[in-house]
Specification:
The complex is a heterodimer of chains A (766) and B (73).
Chain A: H1 20-27, H2 37-41, H3 48-56, H4 60-70, H5 74-80, H6 84-88, H7 100-110, E1 128-131, H8 135-146, E2 151-154, H9 160-167, H10 173-185, E3 188-191, H11 198-204, E4 210-213, H12 215-221, H13 249-267, H14 308-316, H15 325-329, H16 331-336, H17 340-352, H18 361-364, H19 372-376, H20 383-396, H21 406-415, E5 421-423, E6 433-436, H22 439-444, H23 446-459, E7 464-468, H24 473-477, H25 481-497, E8 502-505, H26 508-518, E9 523-524, H27 525-532, E10 544-548, H28 557-569, E11 573-574, H29 593-596, H30 598-608, E12 616-618, H31 621-629, E13 634-636, H32 637-641, H33 652-670, E14 683-685, H34 688-696, H35 701-714, E15 718-720, E16 726-732, E17 735-743, E18 748-757, E19 760-763
Parallel strand pairs in A: 1-2, 1-4, 2-3, 6-7, 6-8, 8-9, 10-11, 10-12, 12-13, 14-18
Antiparallel strand pairs in A: 5-7, 15-16, 16-17, 17-18
Chain B: E1 8-9, E2 16-18, E3 26-34, E4 37-45, H1 56-71
Parallel strand pairs in B: 1-4
Antiparallel strand pairs in B: 3-4
Classes of the chains: A alpha/beta (766), B alpha+beta (73).
Bound molecules: iron/sulfur cluster (SF4) (3 copies) and zinc ion (ZN).
Chain lengths: 766, 73
């Protein structure tokens, strides 16, 4: 079949996953990378979240380095800032906000300065002068020195201590001394005891390319020359000074920072007013869920600051604001270790790769397409759409290997061929209804399906047909559009033959898929049962249960309510859990994860059933099966309704046999058709241990029979003289199956082991 | 791949007999092919009928890992 032709690594087809615009539109929904609220509020851009992170770890020197990077005089900032970050802190909502300035002070006290002067920097050509002392001029002098402008600082104070005392009177004595030392260590020529008159200014100014002054000095020399708000340049004199005549500490520091940017632009001959980059505080688009934040109050800060222990304690109150709403509840995202925005970009790039390793293929195929993230994300991020688009794209460009989904696709074809059944009710040609149990129901709980059909056909008027097969979801999830379309044609044809009856589905995924495919309304069997009542003999269940809503029922409140009505009439008490309804997690079947990434699918099922000793009830056979495979007590609601417990979860071979025997039973008992079964003339013995290996390695009993059949006919095998075993093989489709066995009596084969590979092997003829 | 490098060799003990021809398998030049790539190897095979034997540890080890790499190329 053409659908199962392996790709070639030598074919190159290329199709963009999205245009850049389409990509950005998706990526921008994820605000994971947004700054924390405190960080966004700081006009200087200090990342208080990171500061708290360092301090909580006891990394005071790293914290100190952040502050020294952000401003020339961190202690003045730590004491004098009016701290918009603290006002923006989200902890205010559940107690007291973080004492960020207290943490800044602690960083300065307990951290050591980073050693080394860094790279030797060349002095810039333009010379700068700063006249007069206020916070603005002090900080600008510091900024200019850091930017390597030869800077002269004219002040009337006699020394650094008095200069700092005048500028920052709020500093404690020790801090004053320290900041004075810091100033003296800077590469600034400070001219103390200068006579700051206008005449002096006029006599000096021509020696410099850049001139800044304290605001009072500007007012004295150029009374009506008000600096521009953004560039801090006074239009008449071209002097840089603070815009406000009485600015706050933070405003002075911020203005000095921006004046520094203006200086850079002017000295490069650029317009200081344009292309300045992002400046100042902003609103963060971040979302942080405060439900889990533990309310707390600030740790008291003594007058001389926190000791390290207290600072660490205060920092540990910071909840490190972030958005991980989707990740918290999705095992797949946790497993990738990435957030959707990043993941989306990597998937986009992966799809684009022509030659080279497509490292994200397994990831793309490991999302269960369950849609939970779209509900948990404050912006409705839709990872399922992206992963499915990527699968379809890569299938269409032959970049996606068949190996990922071939087993599931062949299983779907099995459901729609060998095991397929489509019949009108006996005595009818056209039917009012058709029952569509879905491929998994027949594979896992064939008795329940049989009884359900008998019941519906008895109690509903107008004829109830039966279509037993796959709805096409498997092909869709695999991104195999062509197979899906074939399935669509087949089903449309059969439904048409039955007189376009109303479809009664027994699986939420079938219901959803068929509704999308056929653009008609499909009913759930739960709705029908609510209308016509329970059949005789339905099992009552008196232990409490947890309802696991299927991911295909997400957003379908009618379906969720209807199923609860049904379990209610069965006498079930449902235990309330936070993660069901629209928030339900996926069992690991969705999106074919269980075929691609078994370990992850297991984790998904375990996550759905965590911490609960209560049995699970579901209305999707796949959920029922996945939980049972993880050894959790679980049942499908139809097992109760039709008193048909399905027991232990079947392995892959049993699932096929179940479907075949269901078909046979239906044909024989309902349609009275004789089914001829050809039994092979030999016997195959498969122990439980071997059956387990077959299941794990995705080798069907059918494949075992094929190998033995071939051996039986042609006798090709390897005989091992040491242990007396025979090993034979057969190429079936894209897989070579190997079987190790012993022949006991004539025509009895005892299977000892099996394995397979996809590569073809042959003798080399040169 | 056209070079004559042999990617893998399986030593053949003298305990492996071709069931059909009744003669021992011998180390033979063989080739694995997948997704339009091929790898020369040396595997036990029957000199008469050409039956090539791929032992389990080779299939589930080296062969599987090469398959996976090629699948994502
Ligand atoms: S919930 Fe997830 S996708 Fe949505 S913004 Fe947060 S991290 Fe991004
Ligand atoms: S809790 Fe921490 S990260 Fe969040 S706003 Fe407050 S200081 Fe910033
Ligand atoms: S669709 Fe489901 S599995 Fe995929 S990322 Fe979203 S929540 Fe996780
Ligand atoms: Zn031979």
């Amino acid at each position: 079949m053409d659908h199962f032709k392996e790709r070639s690594t030598r074919d190159y087809f290329q199709k963009k996953l999205y245009t850049m615009e389409e990509l950005f539109k998706r990526e921008n929904r994820c605000i994971y990378e947004e700054p924390a609220f405190c960080h966004a509020a700081c006009p200087l851009g200090l990342d208080a979240k990171k500061l708290a992170f360092f301090i909580e770890k006891g990394a005071f020197s790293d914290a100190r380095a952040m502050l020294e990077h952000i401003t020339p005089f961190p202690m003045i900032l730590a004491y004098g800032c009016d701290a918009p970050c603290e006002k923006a802190c989200r902890m205010n909502e559940v107690g007291e906000g973080i004492n960020i300035r207290g943490l800044e002070r602690a960083a300065m006290y307990h951290g050591s300065p980073k050693g080394g002067k860094g790279l030797f920097k060349f002095k810039k050509k333009q010379k700068a002068a700063v006249f007069g002392s206020d916070l603005f001029s002090l900080f600008l002098a510091g900024e200019l020195a850091r930017k390597s402008y030869p800077t002269s600082f004219y002040v009337n104070q006699k020394d650094a201590i008095s200069l700092l005392k005048d500028c920052a009177p709020f500093l404690l004595k020790d801090d004053l001394v320290n900041e004075a030392k810091r100033l003296e260590n800077m590469d600034i020529k400070i001219l103390y005891s200068s006579n700051l008159t206008k005449e002096f200014f006029e006599s000096e100014k021509d020696n410099f390319d850049i001139i800044a002054t304290s605001r009072s000095f500007l007012d004295m020399c150029f009374p009506n020359d008000i600096p521009n708000k953004e560039t801090l340049l006074a239009p008449i004199s071209n002097i840089l000074s603070s815009q406000d005549s009485n600015p706050s500490v933070l405003q002075s520091i911020f203005d000095a920072r921006r004046a520094g940017v203006s200086v850079d632009r002017i000295s490069q001959g650029l317009d200081p007013a344009s292309s300045r980059g992002e400046e100042g505080s902003r609103e963060s688009r971040l979302y942080t869920n405060m439900n889990e934040a533990i309310p707390s109050n600030q740790i008291y800060e003594p007058e001389n600051g926190y000791i390290t222990k207290e600072a660490i304690e205060e920092a540990s109150r910071c909840i490190q604001c972030k958005c991980e709403e989707c990740i918290k509840h999705c095992v797949f995202l946790q497993d990738t270790g990435k957030y959707p925005k990043k993941l989306t970009r990597e998937i986009f790039n992966n799809v684009d790769i022509i030659m080279g390793d497509h490292m994200m293929n397994k990831t793309i195929n490991s999302c269960s397409l369950c849609g939970q993230c779209t509900v948990t994300c404050p912006n409705g991020y839709d990872m399922a759409e992206i992963c499915l688009d990527a699968r379809e794209n890569m299938v269409s460009t032959t970049k996606m290997a068949l190996a990922y989904h071939e087993f599931a696709l062949l299983d779907m074809l099995f459901s729609n061929n060998e095991a397929f059944l489509s019949k009108p009710q006996v005595g009818y040609e056209k039917c009012k209804y058709v029952f569509f149990p879905g491929c998994q129901a027949g594979a896992i709980a064939p008795d329940a399906v049989f009884k359900a059909y008998v019941d519906l056909s008895k109690r509903l008027d107008g004829g109830v047909g039966l279509i037993n097969g796959c709805c096409g979801a498997i092909a869709k999830w695999a991104g195999r559009t062509a197979i899906y379309e074939e399935c669509e044609e087949q089903l449309k044809n059969e439904i048409n033959k039955l007189g376009n009856p109303l479809i009664i589905a027994a699986c939420p995924t079938c219901k959803k898929t068929l509704e999308e495919m056929l653009k008609i309304e499909v009913k759930g069997i739960w709705d029908v049962l609510n209308e016509i009542g329970l059949p005789k003999g339905a099992l009552e269940y008196d232990r409490p249960l947890i309802m696991h809503d299927s991911c295909s029922a997400r957003g379908d409140s009618d379906m969720q309510a209807s199923i609860r009505k049904l379990t209610n009439s069965l006498g079930c008490t449902l235990k309330d859990v936070p993660y069901n309804g629209d928030m339900s997690e996926c069992c690991g079947y969705g999106g074919l994860v269980s075929y691609v990434n078994k370990e992850l699918a297991s984790k998904m099922a375990q996550s759905c059933t965590k911490d609960e000793d209560v049995p699970f009830i579901s209305y999707c056979m796949a959920c029922r099966d996945r939980f049972a495979r993880e050894k959790r007590e679980s049942m499908h609601v139809l097992e109760l309704v039709y008193a048909a417990p399905a027991g232990n979860p079947p392995d892959i071979s049993k699932k096929r046999k179940n479907r075949l025997s269901l078909k046979r039973k239906l044909l024989e008992e309902i349609w009275k058709e004789e089914v001829i079964v050809i039994n092979p003339e030999y016997k195959i013995v498969i122990s439980e241990d071997v059956a387990k290996i077959l299941d794990e390695r995705m080798i069907l009993e059918e494949d075992v029979y094929s190998v033995i059949e071939a051996y039986h006919e042609d006798g090709s095998a390897v005989y091992d003289e040491i242990d007396g075993t025979l090993t034979s093989s057969l190429r079936k489709g894209n897989v070579t199956f190997w079987l190790k066995f012993k022949k006991d009596e004539p025509d009895v084969y005892i299977i000892l082991g099996a394995y397979s590979h996809r590569m073809k092997v042959r003798v080399r003829y040169e | 791949m056209t070079d004559n490098k042999v990617y893998y060799t399986v030593e053949t003990g003298d305990n492996l007999i071709c069931q059909k021809c009744g003669i021992p398998l011998v180390k033979t030049e063989a080739v694995f092919e997948y997704l339009n790539n091929s790898f020369p190897v040396e595997l036990p095979a029957c000199p008469k009928c050409g039956f090539v034997y791929v032992p389990e540890d080779l299939a589930l080890g080296k062969v599987l890992s090469v398959e996976k790499v090629l699948e994502d190329k």
